């Protein structure tokens, strides 16, 4: 979500021995056959969109807690998405919001889905996340740190993992949400775990990765399951993710020639591909070069960032701006809060690719 894919493609080719070893413990029999996955993908229009959080929320808790849930802003900003032809948004849930208020949380998910559906947008929900801050707290969320990218974004479960009762809570959370929405046609796909192994966790994330796939398969939703590949050096995690995903999702913040090589390698799985994170302008991952290539390759295209707001993702991962000024070039995001495009030519390109 926040770091570029390694460009050494050789590291991406997983050894046969490792695949066979991990496959013995994987619920491979319940993974959709490739033919079913490809038939599912063929039923949908080319997927384009963004990772979405309203500009008024600094993190997942601020988006979903009752006191700060903001349907008015969600409606307005998903209207911007509809206007440029986006049809898919990737949205992060949060376990503490469920634990605090289970019926209310599910009602807010339903409210969100109703708004998205009104704008002809399908949703890809994310459960767990290994990125950024590890110590989440229910209640009022902190203000953004001036000029710092995603200063308030939360890992889930972060530091809570391993504390008494936590695993049972996480299992109940995933099971409850997926059971409630397992046949909801407004949901495109369940993205079970964002960037497992990030924040220097590496293979320590394998246990939760295996468990969340197991819990999700037990629910057996009508929608496909996936966990995105993102760091080619994580051999064990990558193997498990690829073998257990119905549809292959991945992140790539590299420029177009390198990104194309990633696609060519991932196509060897014989499954549909959806890029669930790309577009970092200062790293030369740009709409004008990458998005047309993704459409040509029939790969779903979801960029990180939509409306500039409290997440501060106009600033680069590794380049804070202590004065809080607007960077010379935005890292992520497409629109200002009032709906004005950051770069009108980008929006025109997106509309053209989406047939608007």
Summarize the structure.
The chain is of the alpha/beta class and 356 residues long. The chain has twelve helices and eight strands.
Describe this structure in words.
Strand 6, helix 10 and strand 7 form a beta-alpha-beta unit. The chain has one domain: Glycosidases (TIM Barrel, Alpha-Beta Barrel), CATH 3.20.20.80. The relative contact order is 0.18. It has an eight-stranded parallel sheet with strand order 5-4-3-2-1-8-7-6. The protein is an alpha/beta fold and 356 residues long. The chain is built from twelve helices and eight strands. Helix 11 packs parallel to helix 12. The chain is 36% helix and 12% strand. The N terminus is likely disordered.
Q: Please, how many domains?
A: 1
Order of adjacent strands in the largest pleated sheet:
5-4-3-2-1-8-7-6
What class do helices, strands and sheet pairing give? Answer: alpha/beta
pLDDT averaged residue by residue:
93
CATH architecture: Alpha-Beta Barrel
Please state roughly what percent of the residues sit in beta strands, choosing from under 5%, 5-15%, 15-25%, 25-35%, 35-45% or over 45%: 5-15%
> How many DSSP-defined strands?
8
* Through-space gap between termini: 28 Å
Q: Assign a percent range to the helix content.
A: 25-40%
> Rounded to an integer, what's the Rg over CA atoms?
19 Å
Number of helices: 12
GO molecular function: hydrolase activity, hydrolyzing O-glycosyl compounds
Pfam families: Glyco_hydro_2_C (PF02836)
Keywords: Hydrolase, Signal
Signal peptide: 1-23
């Amino acid at each position: 979500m926040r770091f570029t894919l390694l460009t050494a493609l050789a590291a991406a080719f997983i050894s046969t021995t490792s695949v066979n070893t991990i496959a013995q413990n994987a619920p491979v029999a319940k993974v959709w056959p490739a033919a079913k996955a490809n038939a599912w993908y063929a039923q949908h229009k080319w997927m384009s969109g963004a990772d979405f959080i309203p500009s008024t929320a600094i993190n997942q808790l601020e988006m979903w807690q009752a006191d700060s849930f903001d349907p008015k802003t969600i409606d307005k900003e998903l209207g911007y998405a509809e206007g440029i032809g986006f049809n898919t948004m990737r949205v992060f849930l949060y376990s503490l919001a469920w634990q605090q208020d289970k019926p209310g949380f599910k009602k807010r998910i339903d409210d969100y889905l109703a708004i998205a559906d009104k704008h002809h947008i399908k949703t890809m929900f994310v459960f767990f996340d290994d990125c950024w801050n590890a110590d989440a707290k229910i209640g009022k969320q902190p203000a953004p740190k001036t000029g710092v990218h995603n200063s308030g974004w939360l890992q889930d479960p972060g530091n809570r993992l391993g504390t008494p009762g936590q695993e049972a809570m996480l299992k109940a959370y995933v099971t409850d949400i997926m059971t409630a929405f397992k046949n909801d046609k407004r949901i495109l796909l369940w993205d079970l775990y964002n960037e497992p192994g990030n924040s220097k966790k590496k293979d320590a994330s394998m246990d939760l990765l295996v468990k969340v796939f197991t819990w999700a398969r037990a629910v057996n939703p009508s929608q496909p399951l996936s966990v995105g590949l993102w760091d080619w050096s994580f051999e064990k995690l990558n193997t498990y993710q690829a073998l257990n995903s119905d549809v292959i999702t991945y992140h790539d913040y590299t420029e177009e020639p390198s990104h194309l090589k990633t696609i060519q390698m991932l196509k060897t799985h014989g499954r549909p591909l959806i890029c669930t994170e790309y577009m970092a302008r200062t790293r030369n991952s740009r709409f004008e070069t990458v998005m047309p290539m993704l459409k040509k390759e029939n790969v779903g295209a979801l960029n990180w960032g939509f409306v500039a707001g409290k997440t501060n993702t106009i600033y680069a991962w590794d380049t804070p701006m202590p004065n809080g000024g607007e960077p010379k070039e935005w890292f992520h995001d497409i629109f200002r809060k009032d709906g004005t495009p950051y770069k009108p030519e980008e929006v025109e390109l997106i509309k053209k690719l989406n047939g608007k």
